Amino acid sequence: MTTTNPPAAAVPVTKAGGDRPSTAAGRVRKKLSSPLATGIALVIALFWSVPTFGLLISSFRPENEIKTSGWWTFFTDPQLTLSNYDEVLFGGSASSGQLAGYFINSLVITIPAVLFPMAICALAAYALAWIDFRGRDWIYILIFALQIVPLQMALVPLLRFFSQGVELFGVQLLPAWGLSGEELFIQVWFAHTCFAIPFGVYLLHNFISELPRDVMEAARVDGANHPKIFRTIVLPLITPVLASFGIFQFLWVWNDLLVALIFASGGGRDTNPMTVRLAELAGTRGNEWQRLTSGAFVSMIVPLIVFLSLQRYFVRGLLAGSVKG
Amino acid sequence: MNFDLADQADKFVMLLGGLVAFVVLVGGLLLVLDVIPTRLATRREARLAAAADAGVPIAAGAGRGREGWLAAGFLAPALLLLAIGLIFPAVRTTILSFMNRDSSAFVGFDNYTWMFGQPDIQAVLLNTLIWVLVVPTLATTIGLIYAILVDKARGEAVAKALIFLPMSISFVGASIIWKFVYAYRSGEQDQIGLLNQIVVWFGGEPQQWLLGQGYKLNTLLLIVIMIWIQAGFAMVILSAAIKAIPAEIVEAARIDGTNAWQMFWRITLPAIRPAVIVVVVTITIATLKVFDIVRTMTNGNYETSVIANEMYNQSFRYGETGHGSALAVFLFVLVIPIVIFQIRNIRKQRSEA
């Protein structure tokens, strides 16, 4: 017994809902000298938000100001302008960013690349959980295990699949796709869909397999077949976890650089998403801060909105995918 | 203004085409699966009725095969795409890693001896090792500390969102944010990068951070970005695990008079151990594959490259498919033991539960 801990009897009984911490961590926090704990938390929070905050402020400062003084001088000498955004989005010169077009590319890439995996994974997860057939455990394990194949391993052969088709012992089994220009979007959708399946099936299977058996059996007794059960019973029930998978996939595709660099870059301005353009700007025009700062924010806006409005689902998905194991 | 929405029409046509394809494929599949078995079922019933009339005994378990066909229909798109997009390519890459640069002849283990023999590539492997050791450890520790500090505190949701927010930003966006923090200008000028300004405030000389190779300084500064992104993930998972610790255990420990330190090491940490393992494993795998940060910040120059970046360079910039494939295979080999470890843990956890 240490002196810092009063015996249990001496602790005043508080009402339910009082501020007595009921979790271990809450207790640990209370026991740490409170100013120190608050201090550490504040330092971490500051360290995490100040870089983004600085970039946000910078993106609204006039070009000359950004390049000659730190963003913190804004507080003593506030000057705001929207011209950085105007230029980076709509500017005419080749070096300006022209992000408006790339923004649309990102949208066009993302929407189908989210919808396809959602549907395909839901179908597969349902079959693996509720249709009785031989070898389903093995198929599930195979799909689960494919999560460990790094993307990098698939890139070269998949690119060849698109450009040369499938050839086996000199016989052309499948023709080359020969896509160009805007058609390259198809390649990107295809690649993203393939890469999303292992994780998607795993996440959705966790949830679908725990739906109540009674409901399923009642439906079968009523004469519903699997497609009908899937459409009318399962889909409405799994909406929350489907949403969380959708958010995951959305953030992943929207933020992706590698897949886009390899499968979309052939189309240049017509197909490259914003991440590719930004990486390009950061590399070749590393000192054009007015473009980089505002451009970075343009690219963050959509995921931030999605994230902030759907945070609950996103966190639920994280927990379903990770802790339940 | 030099942007005309009409110029973008082609893209929207593609998008529309994609959406139509989506509806047709998924809707069509469900329709086919719905209609055909129903047809078959009616026909079978008719046959069974006829058989019953004739007095023939009905074979048991005849339904199972039919379910199998249905399952195949549900699984077909997923399995087909996996075969084309992952299984076949992974096998192919493994084969390519034993072939020369344009995959015209077998060269045995040459690509692998190149990988371990070349000093440049050895530096890349060392960097990857540093990434994998530092990022999961620090990200998890910071996430855990923060989760404990803000647990049940006022404004917990906001405090958590602050740390969690970087997860929604692209690695490229995050890199630009930090590029700005590390920005350098020579001593006579005003600094625009926060880090150098802090150095100057303390009377130091501004540094070219990303060029500093001593003690791997630049690599460590890139690692900061990854930690910045991943700590939020660790925090969310660990915070949920902490909240799931039964109140009775905590209460009992408190009555026994444990202090905060003991409480953490003997109650909290053991109780959330499975979650900690999941977090460390997930972040480790993500770190092994990191590519965007290095590419955006330094393009792998100044000895900051990692395996994933080098693989991209070899395969897609220098056309050295053999080298690139060998690096990809090596990455795969590194991930395998981590995953086996995780599967074992999950199994152990299940059998204990």
From TrEMBL, chain A:
Subcellular localization: Cell membrane
Region annotation Disordered: where it falls in the sequence: 1-24
Residue stretches making up the ABC transmembrane type-1 domain: 103-310
Source superkingdom: Bacteria
Signal peptide: none
Transmembrane segments: 36-57, 102-131, 138-159, 184-208, 229-254, 296-315
CDD domains: TM_PBP2 (cd06261)
Pfam families: BPD_transp_1
Keyword tags: Cell membrane, Membrane, Transmembrane, Transmembrane helix, Transport
Membrane topology: Multi-pass membrane protein
Principal cellular location given in the protein's record: membrane
Family (UniProt): Belongs to the binding-protein-dependent transport system permease family.
Protein name: Alpha-glucoside transport system permease protein
Species annotation: Catenuloplanes nepalensis
Automatic annotation (TrEMBL), chain B:
UniProt key word Zinc: no
Main subcellular localisation: membrane
Subcellular localization: Cell membrane
Transmembrane regions: 12-36, 69-91, 129-149, 161-181, 220-242, 263-288, 321-341
UniProt keyword annotation of Metal-binding present: no
Source organism superkingdom: Bacteria
CDD domains per record: TM_PBP2
Domain ABC transmembrane type-1: 125-344
Annotated membrane topology: Multi-pass membrane protein
Family of this protein: Belongs to the binding-protein-dependent transport system permease family.
Protein name, UniProt field: Alpha-glucoside transport system permease protein
Native organism: Catenuloplanes nepalensis
